[in-house]
Amino acid sequence: MADYDASRKRLDEAMDQHGLWPARSPWTRQAVADTPRHAFAPDQLWRWDGHTYQPIDRSADPDRWAAEVYGRPHDAAVTRITDGAPSSSLSCPSIVVDMLDSLMLEPGHRGLELGAGTGWNAALLTWRAGPGQVVSLEVDDELARQAKEHLDGAGADAAVVAADGAGGWPPGAPYDRVISTYAVDQVPWAWVEQTRPGGRIVTPWGRLGHVALTVAEDHRSAVGWMQGLATFMPARGTPPASSWPHVRGTGPADDERPFARDLHALKDDAHLIFALRIHLPDVQISTGMDDDSVAGGLN
To answer: Does 175 reside within a domain?
Structure first.
Protein backbone atom coordinates (compact mmCIF):
# COMPACT_ATOMS: atom_id res chain seq x y z
CA MET A 1 0.00 0.00 0.00
CA ALA A 2 1.27 3.46 -0.88
CA ASP A 3 2.52 5.72 1.90
CA TYR A 4 0.23 8.69 1.41
CA ASP A 5 1.44 10.49 4.53
CA ALA A 6 5.02 10.57 3.27
CA SER A 7 3.89 11.74 -0.18
CA ARG A 8 1.75 14.50 1.30
CA LYS A 9 4.58 15.64 3.54
CA ARG A 10 7.01 15.85 0.63
CA LEU A 11 4.57 17.96 -1.38
CA ASP A 12 3.81 20.24 1.58
CA GLU A 13 7.52 20.81 2.20
CA ALA A 14 8.17 21.50 -1.48
CA MET A 15 5.39 24.08 -1.50
CA ASP A 16 6.90 25.67 1.59
CA GLN A 17 10.45 25.62 0.21
CA HIS A 18 9.39 27.47 -2.94
CA GLY A 19 7.23 29.99 -1.08
CA LEU A 20 4.02 28.78 -2.71
CA TRP A 21 1.74 28.82 0.32
CA PRO A 22 -0.06 32.22 0.15
CA ALA A 23 0.96 34.45 3.06
CA ARG A 24 -2.32 36.37 2.72
CA SER A 25 -4.38 33.16 2.94
CA PRO A 26 -2.68 30.85 5.46
CA TRP A 27 -5.91 28.88 5.75
CA THR A 28 -5.17 27.23 2.38
CA ARG A 29 -2.33 25.17 3.84
CA GLN A 30 -4.50 23.76 6.61
CA ALA A 31 -7.36 23.14 4.18
CA VAL A 32 -5.07 21.13 1.91
CA ALA A 33 -3.73 19.21 4.92
CA ASP A 34 -7.27 18.34 6.00
CA THR A 35 -8.46 17.49 2.48
CA PRO A 36 -6.13 14.84 0.98
CA ARG A 37 -5.90 14.80 -2.82
CA HIS A 38 -5.89 11.01 -3.03
CA ALA A 39 -9.41 10.88 -1.57
CA PHE A 40 -10.62 12.69 -4.71
CA ALA A 41 -8.54 10.96 -7.37
CA PRO A 42 -10.05 8.20 -9.55
CA ASP A 43 -8.45 4.77 -9.58
CA GLN A 44 -7.00 5.41 -13.03
CA LEU A 45 -4.78 8.37 -13.84
CA TRP A 46 -2.94 9.24 -17.05
CA ARG A 47 0.66 10.27 -17.71
CA TRP A 48 2.32 11.51 -20.90
CA ASP A 49 5.22 9.26 -21.95
CA GLY A 50 6.49 11.50 -24.73
CA HIS A 51 4.22 9.97 -27.35
CA THR A 52 0.84 9.29 -25.79
CA TYR A 53 -1.00 9.25 -22.48
CA GLN A 54 -0.53 5.99 -20.60
CA PRO A 55 -2.83 4.80 -17.80
CA ILE A 56 -1.66 4.40 -14.22
CA ASP A 57 -3.88 2.07 -12.22
CA ARG A 58 -4.11 2.35 -8.46
CA SER A 59 -4.51 -1.37 -7.92
CA ALA A 60 -1.69 -2.41 -10.27
CA ASP A 61 0.90 0.17 -9.18
CA PRO A 62 -0.18 2.00 -6.01
CA ASP A 63 3.18 3.70 -5.44
CA ARG A 64 3.32 5.16 -8.94
CA TRP A 65 -0.33 6.19 -8.65
CA ALA A 66 0.38 7.99 -5.36
CA ALA A 67 3.43 9.67 -6.89
CA GLU A 68 1.21 10.98 -9.68
CA VAL A 69 -1.37 12.34 -7.23
CA TYR A 70 1.30 13.94 -5.05
CA GLY A 71 3.78 15.11 -7.66
CA ARG A 72 5.62 18.42 -7.64
CA PRO A 73 3.86 21.68 -6.73
CA HIS A 74 3.35 22.63 -10.38
CA ASP A 75 2.22 19.16 -11.54
CA ALA A 76 -1.41 18.33 -12.32
CA ALA A 77 -2.69 14.75 -12.27
CA VAL A 78 -4.66 13.96 -15.43
CA THR A 79 -7.87 12.15 -14.53
CA ARG A 80 -9.60 11.84 -17.91
CA ILE A 81 -8.57 11.64 -21.56
CA THR A 82 -11.00 12.55 -24.35
CA ASP A 83 -10.02 12.09 -28.01
CA GLY A 84 -6.40 11.67 -27.00
CA ALA A 85 -6.17 14.90 -24.97
CA PRO A 86 -6.66 15.67 -21.26
CA SER A 87 -10.20 16.81 -20.46
CA SER A 88 -10.14 16.76 -16.64
CA SER A 89 -7.48 16.77 -13.94
CA LEU A 90 -6.55 17.29 -10.34
CA SER A 91 -5.06 20.75 -10.79
CA CYS A 92 -1.53 21.44 -9.58
CA PRO A 93 -1.54 22.45 -5.91
CA SER A 94 0.39 25.69 -6.43
CA ILE A 95 -2.23 27.06 -8.84
CA VAL A 96 -5.16 25.85 -6.75
CA VAL A 97 -4.01 27.73 -3.64
CA ASP A 98 -3.02 30.77 -5.70
CA MET A 99 -6.54 30.99 -7.13
CA LEU A 100 -8.08 30.49 -3.69
CA ASP A 101 -5.89 33.32 -2.43
CA SER A 102 -7.14 35.53 -5.30
CA LEU A 103 -10.73 34.64 -4.42
CA MET A 104 -10.39 36.13 -0.92
CA LEU A 105 -12.95 33.64 0.42
CA GLU A 106 -14.22 34.13 3.96
CA PRO A 107 -16.27 31.92 6.33
CA GLY A 108 -19.97 32.26 5.60
CA HIS A 109 -19.52 33.34 1.99
CA ARG A 110 -21.87 31.85 -0.56
CA GLY A 111 -19.73 30.34 -3.31
CA LEU A 112 -20.31 29.07 -6.86
CA GLU A 113 -17.75 26.86 -8.58
CA LEU A 114 -17.80 26.16 -12.31
CA GLY A 115 -16.20 22.82 -13.12
CA ALA A 116 -16.42 20.35 -10.24
CA GLY A 117 -13.97 17.87 -11.77
CA THR A 118 -12.96 15.50 -8.98
CA GLY A 119 -14.55 17.62 -6.25
CA TRP A 120 -11.26 18.48 -4.53
CA ASN A 121 -11.48 22.23 -5.12
CA ALA A 122 -15.10 22.30 -3.96
CA ALA A 123 -13.99 20.54 -0.77
CA LEU A 124 -11.34 23.22 -0.16
CA LEU A 125 -13.93 25.94 -0.75
CA THR A 126 -16.29 24.26 1.70
CA TRP A 127 -13.51 23.93 4.30
CA ARG A 128 -13.27 27.71 4.30
CA ALA A 129 -16.82 28.90 3.57
CA GLY A 130 -18.60 26.33 5.72
CA PRO A 131 -21.11 23.49 5.25
CA GLY A 132 -23.83 24.09 2.68
CA GLN A 133 -22.26 27.30 1.34
CA VAL A 134 -20.84 25.99 -1.95
CA VAL A 135 -22.54 24.93 -5.18
CA SER A 136 -20.36 23.29 -7.83
CA LEU A 137 -21.46 22.78 -11.43
CA GLU A 138 -20.13 20.05 -13.74
CA VAL A 139 -21.21 19.66 -17.37
CA ASP A 140 -20.25 15.96 -17.46
CA ASP A 141 -22.89 13.84 -15.72
CA GLU A 142 -20.45 11.08 -14.75
CA LEU A 143 -17.87 13.52 -13.37
CA ALA A 144 -20.63 15.25 -11.41
CA ARG A 145 -21.65 11.94 -9.88
CA GLN A 146 -18.07 11.08 -8.98
CA ALA A 147 -17.40 14.54 -7.53
CA LYS A 148 -20.44 14.25 -5.25
CA GLU A 149 -19.34 10.78 -4.20
CA HIS A 150 -15.86 12.07 -3.31
CA LEU A 151 -17.27 15.04 -1.40
CA ASP A 152 -19.67 12.89 0.58
CA GLY A 153 -16.88 10.42 1.34
CA ALA A 154 -14.73 13.25 2.68
CA GLY A 155 -17.58 14.68 4.76
CA ALA A 156 -17.69 17.93 2.76
CA ASP A 157 -21.21 19.38 2.59
CA ALA A 158 -21.21 20.90 -0.91
CA ALA A 159 -23.88 20.66 -3.60
CA VAL A 160 -22.95 19.33 -7.05
CA VAL A 161 -25.20 20.08 -10.01
CA ALA A 162 -24.85 18.50 -13.46
CA ALA A 163 -25.09 21.63 -15.59
CA ASP A 164 -23.12 23.82 -17.99
CA GLY A 165 -21.23 26.42 -16.00
CA ALA A 166 -21.56 29.07 -18.72
CA GLY A 167 -25.02 29.98 -17.44
CA GLY A 168 -24.08 29.93 -13.77
CA TRP A 169 -26.69 28.65 -11.34
CA PRO A 170 -29.49 31.20 -10.75
CA PRO A 171 -31.30 29.19 -8.02
CA GLY A 172 -28.37 29.74 -5.65
CA ALA A 173 -27.70 33.39 -6.47
CA PRO A 174 -26.56 35.89 -5.38
CA TYR A 175 -23.05 34.62 -4.66
CA ASP A 176 -20.28 36.31 -2.74
CA ARG A 177 -17.61 34.43 -4.66
CA VAL A 178 -17.51 32.70 -8.07
CA ILE A 179 -14.58 30.59 -9.25
CA SER A 180 -14.04 28.66 -12.47
CA THR A 181 -11.63 25.75 -12.85
CA TYR A 182 -11.56 25.90 -16.66
CA ALA A 183 -10.47 28.64 -19.05
CA VAL A 184 -12.88 30.93 -20.89
CA ASP A 185 -12.15 33.38 -23.70
CA GLN A 186 -14.87 35.70 -22.44
CA VAL A 187 -16.25 35.89 -18.90
CA PRO A 188 -19.95 34.94 -19.14
CA TRP A 189 -22.16 37.84 -18.12
CA ALA A 190 -24.30 35.39 -16.14
CA TRP A 191 -21.42 35.09 -13.66
CA VAL A 192 -21.43 38.85 -13.11
CA GLU A 193 -25.22 38.97 -12.82
CA GLN A 194 -25.21 36.25 -10.17
CA THR A 195 -22.43 37.79 -8.06
CA ARG A 196 -23.41 40.44 -5.55
CA PRO A 197 -21.93 43.94 -5.87
CA GLY A 198 -18.48 43.91 -4.30
CA GLY A 199 -18.20 40.15 -4.83
CA ARG A 200 -15.28 38.51 -6.61
CA ILE A 201 -14.94 36.30 -9.66
CA VAL A 202 -11.76 34.29 -10.28
CA THR A 203 -11.37 32.48 -13.58
CA PRO A 204 -8.70 31.30 -16.00
CA TRP A 205 -8.80 33.50 -19.09
CA GLY A 206 -7.75 32.17 -22.49
CA ARG A 207 -4.17 30.88 -22.50
CA LEU A 208 -2.96 33.69 -20.26
CA GLY A 209 -3.64 32.61 -16.70
CA HIS A 210 -6.30 33.56 -14.18
CA VAL A 211 -7.95 36.89 -13.53
CA ALA A 212 -9.55 38.20 -10.35
CA LEU A 213 -12.53 40.52 -10.91
CA THR A 214 -14.58 42.60 -8.49
CA VAL A 215 -18.22 43.30 -9.36
CA ALA A 216 -19.04 47.01 -9.37
CA GLU A 217 -21.51 48.49 -6.92
CA ASP A 218 -23.89 49.38 -9.77
CA HIS A 219 -23.74 45.74 -10.92
CA ARG A 220 -23.00 46.82 -14.49
CA SER A 221 -19.37 45.72 -14.76
CA ALA A 222 -16.55 43.75 -13.15
CA VAL A 223 -12.92 44.83 -13.20
CA GLY A 224 -9.66 43.34 -11.98
CA TRP A 225 -6.24 42.10 -12.96
CA MET A 226 -4.19 39.09 -14.01
CA GLN A 227 -2.98 36.93 -11.14
CA GLY A 228 -0.91 34.16 -12.75
CA LEU A 229 0.32 32.72 -16.03
CA ALA A 230 -0.61 29.05 -15.80
CA THR A 231 -2.52 27.51 -18.72
CA PHE A 232 -5.82 25.76 -17.99
CA MET A 233 -8.03 23.34 -19.85
CA PRO A 234 -10.61 25.26 -21.92
CA ALA A 235 -14.37 25.13 -21.55
CA ARG A 236 -16.02 22.14 -23.23
CA GLY A 237 -16.75 22.86 -26.87
CA THR A 238 -13.80 25.22 -27.37
CA PRO A 239 -12.22 24.55 -30.79
CA PRO A 240 -8.83 22.86 -30.51
CA ALA A 241 -5.72 24.95 -30.94
CA SER A 242 -4.00 24.96 -34.31
CA SER A 243 -1.45 22.23 -34.89
CA TRP A 244 2.03 22.60 -36.39
CA PRO A 245 0.93 21.82 -39.98
CA HIS A 246 -1.41 24.82 -39.92
CA VAL A 247 1.59 27.05 -39.26
CA ARG A 248 4.39 25.40 -41.22
CA GLY A 249 2.68 23.50 -43.98
CA THR A 250 3.73 20.01 -44.95
CA GLY A 251 6.51 20.75 -47.42
CA PRO A 252 10.11 21.92 -46.91
CA ALA A 253 10.71 25.39 -45.54
CA ASP A 254 11.18 28.18 -48.10
CA ASP A 255 13.86 29.77 -45.98
CA GLU A 256 16.05 28.54 -43.12
CA ARG A 257 18.61 30.54 -41.14
CA PRO A 258 20.18 30.48 -37.68
CA PHE A 259 18.32 32.22 -34.88
CA ALA A 260 20.99 33.96 -32.85
CA ARG A 261 18.93 35.43 -30.00
CA ASP A 262 19.00 33.83 -26.57
CA LEU A 263 15.76 31.88 -26.02
CA HIS A 264 16.05 31.74 -22.23
CA ALA A 265 13.68 34.70 -22.01
CA LEU A 266 10.89 32.62 -23.56
CA LYS A 267 11.31 30.19 -20.69
CA ASP A 268 12.16 32.45 -17.75
CA ASP A 269 10.84 35.99 -18.35
CA ALA A 270 7.24 36.05 -17.10
CA HIS A 271 6.80 39.67 -18.24
CA LEU A 272 7.78 38.79 -21.82
CA ILE A 273 5.54 35.74 -21.88
CA PHE A 274 2.62 37.83 -20.59
CA ALA A 275 3.19 40.52 -23.23
CA LEU A 276 3.39 37.94 -26.02
CA ARG A 277 0.19 36.26 -24.88
CA ILE A 278 -1.63 39.62 -24.85
CA HIS A 279 -0.39 40.75 -28.29
CA LEU A 280 -0.42 37.30 -29.95
CA PRO A 281 -3.29 35.43 -28.26
CA ASP A 282 -3.43 32.72 -30.95
CA VAL A 283 0.26 31.87 -30.62
CA GLN A 284 1.33 29.11 -28.26
CA ILE A 285 4.89 29.20 -26.96
CA SER A 286 6.70 26.01 -25.99
CA THR A 287 10.22 25.60 -24.69
CA GLY A 288 12.48 22.67 -23.92
CA MET A 289 15.79 22.50 -22.07
CA ASP A 290 18.81 20.35 -22.81
CA ASP A 291 22.31 20.36 -21.30
CA ASP A 292 23.46 23.65 -22.76
CA SER A 293 20.57 25.47 -24.44
CA VAL A 294 16.88 26.25 -24.63
CA ALA A 295 14.82 25.16 -27.65
CA GLY A 296 11.68 27.10 -28.38
CA GLY A 297 8.67 26.80 -30.63
CA LEU A 298 5.77 29.03 -31.66
CA ASN A 299 2.53 27.37 -32.65
So the answer is: yes
pLDDT at 104 over 50: yes
- Domain closes at, from 226, 257, 274: 226
Domain for residue 234, yes or no? no
Catalytic: 91?
A: yes
Question: What is the Cα–Cα distance from 97 to 297, expressed in whole angstroms?
Answer: 30
Residues 274 and 228 sit within 8 Å (Cβ to Cβ): no
Residue 189: which domain range? 93-226
pTM: 0.83
Distance CA 28, CA 125 (A): 9
In the sheet that 85-90 helps form, which strands lie side by side, from edge to edge? 53-57, 44-48, 77-82, 85-90
Out of 7, 91, 102, 136, which one is annotated catalytic? 91
User: For the sheet containing 159-162, what is the strand order?
Assistant: 159-162, 134-138, 111-114, 175-180, 195-205, 209-215, 222-226
Give residue-wise pLDDT tens across range 26-41. 999 999 999 999 999 9
In angstroms, what CA-CA distances link 45 with 28, 50, 78, 84?
A: 25, 16, 6, 14
| C-alpha dist (Å) from residue 168 to 71, 89, 162 | 32, 21, 11
Same domain, 99 and 84: no
